Amino acid sequence: MRFFDAHCHFDFPEFDGRREQELASAKAGGVQGLVMPGVRRSDWARLVSLSAPEAGLWYCLGIHPWFVAEHGLDDLDALEAAVASRLPGCIGVGECGLDGLRGSFVEQAPWFSAQVGIAARFGAPLVIHSVKAHDQVAALLRSERWQGRALIHGFSGSYQQACKFIELGCYIGVGGVITHDRAKKTRDVISRLPVEVLVLETDAPDMSPAGVAKGQNSPLYIPDIFAQLAGLRGDDKEWLAEVLMANVGEFYGLAPEVLAPN
Ligand SMILES: [Zn+2]
Q1: Cα 254 to middle of ligand 1, angstroms
Q2: Which of 86, 2, 3 is nearest to 51 (CA)?
Q3: pTM, to two decimals
Q4: CB 95 within 8 A of CB 68
Q5: 114 Cβ partners below 8 Å, 6+ apart?
Q6: Cβ neighbourhood burial of 53 (10 Å; 0-12, 13-18, 19+)
Q7: 153 C-alpha vs ligand 1 centroid, how far in Å?
Q8: Domain 3-259 has what CATH class?
Q9: How far is the CA of 111 from the centre of ligand 1 (A)?
Q10: Which of 21, 109, 138, 206 is 20 to 30 A removed from 120 (C-alpha atoms)?
Q11: Ligand 1 centre and the CA of 26: distance in Å?
């Protein structure tokens, strides 16, 4: 079976010095590639330099809601210019969005709308961070008349909230949350959603699966998340793995063979 990690902060310093080894272990487990989301402009150059599409290493550029205060309008211009120039390896806008646990919606919303606008103008997929903000994120996508592909990464929320996102054309990111027994609600929701909207991700080094220390998450845990997902849904594993590859390929707009080369 082959897998892909749709959202992994593999550029973060936590992986310095062990990136190659980590990637080799992940690949040995069938994880044939990953996408590194951008969170702040000061990290964008690092993403560009780590990008290696031929090895399955891709990235997105964006401004995360936690870091909006360190940015200015020129950073949005730079983002737009980068997306317009279609750099090899850059396959989306994000992660951007809203976070009800850190900062304020009033501060975050203009940055989110601007990035929704950039993704819309260039037909780029949009990677969304939505924490305690699902209703606000859905409302903003609706008011921006969003028509493209979006991923609600690391989703945890109600069935109704997930359905509202799906109606808006969103994919739902499934991560380590579902490996925790305490996440009953999210486990139940994910088991009931249509399989064609599901995308696997780790959000490593954060969002550790059960049994993995905080901050020690890695793309090599994708098969564990996958096994939980297959168990929760009762799906045939081989079949589910291929459907998930097709889903992430559709979301990022690349054939699975291109996205996750052997
Ligand atoms: Zn993230």
Answers
A1: 21
A2: 86
A3: 0.96
A4: no
A5: 76
A6: middle
A7: 7
A8: alpha beta
A9: 16
A10: 206
A11: 18
Return d(Cα 147, Cα 97) in angstroms, integer: 16
Assigned token pair, 148:
């493209």
66-105 residues labelled b (16+ CB within 10 A) or e (exposed): bbbeebeeebbeebbebbeeeeebbbbbbbbbbbbeeeee
Q: Is the backbone peptide bond immediately before 95 cis, with ω within 30 degrees of 0?
A: yes
Residue with tokens 């120039």: 85
Q: Which residues pair with 198 in a beta bridge?
A: 172
Q: What is the mean pLDDT of residues 71-91?
A: 96
CA of residue 6 to ligand 1 center, whole Å: 10
Question: What is the rounded CA–CA span in Å between residue 236 and residue 238?
Answer: 6
Residues around ion ligand 1, judged by CB within 5 A, are: 203
Whole-number Å distance, alpha carbon 69 to ligand 1 midpoint, is: 18
What phi and psi values does residue 55 have, to the nearest 5 degrees? -105, 5
Render pLDDT for 111-126 as a digit per residue (tens, 0 to 9): 999 999 999 999 999 9
Alpha-carbon distances, residue 204 vs 37, 86, 97, 214 (angstroms): 11, 26, 18, 10
What mean pLDDT do residues 14-37 have? Answer: 97
The mean pLDDT of 3-19, rounded to a whole number, is 97
Residue 36 phi/psi, 5-degree rounding, is -95, 115
Note every long-range contact of 223-229, with CB atoms under 8 Å and residues 24 or more positions apart, other chains counting: 223/1, 223/3, 223/29, 223/30, 223/31, 224/179, 225/174, 225/175, 225/176, 225/178, 225/179, 225/200, 226/1, 226/3, 226/200, 228/178, 228/179, 229/174, 229/178, 229/190, 229/198, 229/200
